[in-house]
């Protein structure tokens, strides 16, 4: 193995080492020390990715690519992982949280570079299993329900994915994703099965049922793994697959339909939610739907649009869940006066919701620009209409929560100020910067996405 | 430079106000005033040093070259007038909000940001940046209503936001489509104006733009957000809504459809004029039935802004000049009325016309100001509003006398609501609520005096305003004349 190869695999290796180190420290060290070690190693991985941003793409290895797309995906996954690390808690004395987040992140980094069916499935399963374990850590009834659903449906989806990969392999004679684009019966069946499996991971309708339960029952860190980390990594993997569109027309049609259904259903059901976590759960379904529609429509802007949208959505969802984690399971009315009790949390939540709804100056507006432009450029009018309806509905429920966080409390202030750890403050500050700065000056983000788009 | 300053000064002024509030009492107010006064000064400098050609000032720079987005700012007389109104009303809003002490720092920041975003709308000719500011403007205005409003403020604020943001999607979809189908990708309005779109495409794009503009104006049936937003908004919010946000709708309608989609505009002009005529009558009649003074003025806004829609769709000289004059005149009269009603509510605790009356005896300057601005609102000759409406109606006679007749008849309705309001507030024996109302404070008197002066001077010397708007009117008219049979 050459030095170049080591550098290529460095981020993945460092993240994996972070997970193993955290696992080893869990029985003996305090949570602070574990979290610090894990964060340092993951930050080193992120620095390595950033340093190699301009480097020429490394030659393709059997399983993983090291190109601009993989690097951008890895950077986003690592950023999300670092953010999530800040609000992992020791549930019932168990301190495996950081280890699980690091493992999930390594799965995400692997997914971002996956050019092969085996790497794809490994990456997805590592992420999902870490998510299941993190969900089950509080040992409460809602967490158990969420974890059970996730595990059961995750198992079915893993089986579906494996079967899909098997069909695609049978059809093409190769496990490389780039070869899965063939037509014919085997490829079509393989494409459909792959799509069904990925739709589960990506929380697209009708495979979304686990998401709201996860968001309301699991620790916020597990929700953030699903909403930010897994979404970014799976999004990049979908982008690679969309290039070849396994199964041809089946792929585009299925992805478009699942995306439109998710965008409509997620947004419409979210209207009725009064719990912040559940609302975020339905909203993440909707955002997956938008992404799936971009990928299904294809067209000249699809790659850039997917990446810009992912980069716009991830910091918002991490910030919102970080606040939700500090507050515990809050309803909309309990949010009132948050900005008074804890200004940073209140403003960060308000800004995150502004970004999710796609209003300037948040980067979500740039994401929406690309969403609509990509669909218009691909002349996918039905999908554009679905996205517009979803976006129109969304204004109502996000802003209801946003204004509750910013408004003055009604009557006596009873709720105590939520405690924010240093890590959580740092996460919120970085997330706010990643929401506002590219919203006001998007060129660096657009250039990165443009270079990384396949 | 003067153009960039129009955006950056109020934008950073808002942040400065946020920070300044920590250093001492009332600092945020003076910082906000200073920021917007500096904006006005920069505007004056820009106009004084302006070029003679189509544009007084022009600025172009790359913003996000990866996606063909530019900062493309241009100012002609119309823009300059709107910018002056924007910063001027911002300053007035600060002065008449001296009683706002609850979260005052954020309040003044929101005023500055509203002004900054509105300035962006008035200046931008890169359609994506235009859409950016268009959406941005909603956010601070939403905060103003939701956090400092009266009564059921949050519901009103969300209604305001949902109506405007959803309508904004029409604009966004149209802009993104135009950008995404251009090759290389550009959102430059001047370049896109040269693009030939098919007839259907033009009509669809125009409808997308018009949806956003007509909700902001607002024209029935898109006006449902306005009475609630105005009623619940704080006085400063009402002033900015009526004087500034509504005008962005009028400005957008005036500027972009004639420039980008002249064929479609002329094809749909009859519908637009019909909708405008309906709005004039409908707004007037509903205004007559209100007992809440703010709601009454809100409905008169519907009527007056519908006249702007008629004027733009008329597509002839008189009508377009009238539309331009009307939107400027209405900015003076409606913001002054909301200022006065807000001051009255602050003194008496009510806006209900049945509980008010006799202000003439207890606060004569107050009552006289009301009378002056209601004379303006019902388009009494001598006010700028008269000039605007008379020009639009004259233009209508050239195009279609039916609409002109409807607009003329509606002027009668405006006499009904004006007398109702002025009678309900000023005349009769002083009601208990009014008895101890003090007269106008000097912080209220001088804004009223300035607004009144503007309404009268431009009404008595129309050429001042018309000359100023001439280049913008010519530019809007040129493509329409080519299209007209």
From TrEMBL, chain A:
Organism of this sequence: Rhodosalinus sediminis
Descriptive protein name: NADH-quinone oxidoreductase subunit N
Pfam families reported in the protein's UniProt record: Proton_antipo_M
GO cellular-component term (any): plasma membrane
The protein's Enzyme Commission number: 7.1.1.-
InterPro entries with a match to the protein in the record: NADH-Q_OxRdtase_suN/2 (IPR010096), ND/Mrp_TM (IPR001750)
Annotated transmembrane regions: 43-64, 69-88, 108-136, 148-170, 182-202, 214-242, 248-268, 280-301, 307-331, 343-363, 369-399, 419-441
Residue span(s) of domain NADH:quinone oxidoreductase/Mrp antiporter transmembrane: 118-390
GO biological process: ATP synthesis coupled electron transport
Swiss-Prot/TrEMBL keywords: Cell membrane, Membrane, NAD, Quinone, Translocase, Transmembrane, Transmembrane helix, Transport, Ubiquinone
Subunit and partners: NDH-1 is composed of 14 different subunits. Subunits NuoA, H, J, K, L, M, N constitute the membrane sector of the complex.
Main location: membrane
Localisation per UniProt entry: Cell membrane; Endomembrane system; Membrane
Annotated family: Belongs to the complex I subunit 2 family.
Catalytic reaction equation(s): a quinone + NADH + 5 H(+)(in) = a quinol + NAD(+) + 4 H(+)(out)
Membrane topology note: Multi-pass membrane protein
GO MF terms, alphabetically ordered: NADH dehydrogenase (quinone) (non-electrogenic) activity; NADH dehydrogenase (ubiquinone) activity; quinone binding
Taxonomic lineage: Bacteria, Pseudomonadati, Pseudomonadota, Alphaproteobacteria, Rhodobacterales
Protein task: NDH-1 shuttles electrons from NADH, via FMN and iron-sulfur (Fe-S) centers, to quinones in the respiratory chain. The immediate electron acceptor for the enzyme in this species is believed to be ubiquinone. Couples the redox reaction to proton translocation (for every two electrons transferred, four hydrogen ions are translocated across the cytoplasmic membrane), and thus conserves the redox energy in a proton gradient.
From TrEMBL, chain B:
UniProt key word Methyltransferase: no
Function: NDH-1 shuttles electrons from NADH, via FMN and iron-sulfur (Fe-S) centers, to quinones in the respiratory chain. The immediate electron acceptor for the enzyme in this species is believed to be ubiquinone. Couples the redox reaction to proton translocation (for every two electrons transferred, four hydrogen ions are translocated across the cytoplasmic membrane), and thus conserves the redox energy in a proton gradient.
InterPro entries found in the cross-reference section: NADH_Q_OxRdtase_chainM/4, NADH_UbQ_OxRdtase, ND/Mrp_TM
Pfam families: Proton_antipo_M (PF00361)
Domain NADH:quinone oxidoreductase/Mrp antiporter transmembrane, chain residue ranges per copy: 125-410
GO molecular function terms listed in the Swiss-Prot or TrEMBL record: NADH dehydrogenase (ubiquinone) activity; NADH dehydrogenase activity; ubiquinone binding
Family of this protein: Belongs to the complex I subunit 4 family.
UniProt keyword annotations, A-Z: Membrane, Transmembrane, Transmembrane helix
Highest rank taxon of the organism: Bacteria
Locations listed in the record: Endomembrane system; Membrane
This protein's name: NADH-quinone oxidoreductase subunit M
Topology with respect to the bilayer: Multi-pass membrane protein
Any single GO CC term annotated in Swiss-Prot or TrEMBL for this entry: membrane
Residues passing through the membrane, by range: 30-50, 81-98, 105-122, 128-148, 160-180, 200-219, 231-254, 266-289, 296-321, 327-344, 365-387, 399-427, 448-470
Gene Ontology BP term (one): ATP synthesis coupled electron transport
PANTHER family cross-referenced by the UniProt entry: NADH-UBIQUINONE OXIDOREDUCTASE CHAIN 4
